[in-house]
Amino acid sequence: MSDKPVNAQDTLALVARTDFPADFVWGCSTSSFQIEGAAAIDGRTPSIWDQFCQQPGKIRDSSDATVACDHYHRWPEDLDLASQFGMNAYRFSIAWPRIFPDASGVPNRLGLDFYSRLVDGMLERGLTPWATLYHWDLPQYLQDAGGWENRATVDAYLHYVDVVTRHLGDRIKHWITHNEPWCTAMHGNWDGMHAPGKQDFKAALQVSHHVMLSHGLAVPVIRANVPAAKVGIALSLHPLRAASDSAADLLAMQRHDGLRNRWFLDPLFGRGYPADVLAHCADYLPQITASEVDLIATPLDFLGVNYYFPETIAAAPDNPPLHTSLKEVAGRERTGFGWEVAPDGMRELLQRIAQDYPAIPIYLTENGSSYEDQVEADGSVQDTARRDYFIRHLHALQQARQQGVDVRGYFAWSLMDNFEWAEGYLRRFGMVYIDFATQQRTVKQSGHWFRNFLHQNVVSPLDMT
């Protein structure tokens, strides 16, 4: 299938729910910091993102997530929407600063009670809860003590995991240890785009190792606390393209792949850290022991893949340490965020994982697009581009399944517009439009399509509205 834009009628033949198994998981993803708000309510204390938002110039619109979508108070309405769409699963994250607001190690009962109510609300609506334990909102007091660079943060994470899974494990069976450790490490500590905003490549590699180590150590804790637990991790992965066939660009693509993809996949599957990355980045390597690398490879029940776009890589001799750069190729379809729209990239990525690594169930734990949505005079939000984005990516997903990739579920990013990290409220990814001034929720065209897709077996012309 071409990655060129398609019109509404062309999409009709692409995908139907009957293309997927009856037990396929259909869900949407959210994260605590991006939607909850209630930043100082019921004992919650600041995370590194609360602190980051206060630094001038870090958030493009100078906003913060003090209120966000006010999901902390409006969660019944939000879960109703997910249920009405026909979802059978709901991926959310737990805010560490709500559970442990200080360094005492004593859990905050009000924080635990909130997530207990939230999980009960999911179950009452037929939504299977998928909990992400870490989606970037590290308590600020831990960052003050060194953050993920400090080995002690791994121990603090394990205590947090133990308490949360003991409290909620009677109702939650699906657990994701970390969301996108690449972003935690590299955006947070190398390019400084994310909290805590450091620009230190050696620190970023140390953070990545401690995050991955905490993952490996957490898996047996979860399994001990939760009978029949299914445990995985969600990685942000990208199919890569060389900017040209030159030897320099091909080498650059290999180096970029080493850090972007294989640095996380290889140790998870028992191969250790990639030898080419270790050699090329020898002056920046974290403290790593063989036993720790073995722990990272604790067997998983599933792999979560977050897919958004491919990357085109060119050699950049003056850009250490990788000597690579991202190149934007003109003429390709892009989202409002500037990300390339490439459904075939999803299929290629999934095929690569299936071919290069041991067999494991895969879930698309995030996939979605940002556009500059507007409320029309009639109150509707006609996000046709996002609707077609979903259709085309689901078609690519089904192609991957037909080619033997063991994909068992799809989680759309996201249920609703939210605080989009360093972009503030400038980017909208939701199937539900949020008026952040009034907190009014409006289902977009893409949400209506998804509802019809999940409630009806075959896409029809009426579904396209």
Automatic annotation (TrEMBL):
Lipid biosynthesis keyword on record: no
Pfam families referenced in this protein's UniProt entry, alphabetically: Glyco_hydro_1
Keyword Hydrolase: yes
Catalysis performed (reactions): Hydrolysis of terminal, non-reducing beta-D-glucosyl residues with release of beta-D-glucose
Root EC class: hydrolase
Keyword entries, A-Z: Carbohydrate metabolism, Cellulose degradation, Glycosidase, Hydrolase, Polysaccharide degradation
EC number per UniProt: 3.2.1.21
GO MF entry, a single one: beta-galactosidase activity
Superkingdom of source: Bacteria
Signal peptide extent: none
Family: Belongs to the glycosyl hydrolase 1 family.
PANTHER family: GLYCOSYL HYDROLASE, LP05116P
Name by which UniProt lists this protein: Beta-glucosidase
Organism of this sequence: Undibacterium flavidum
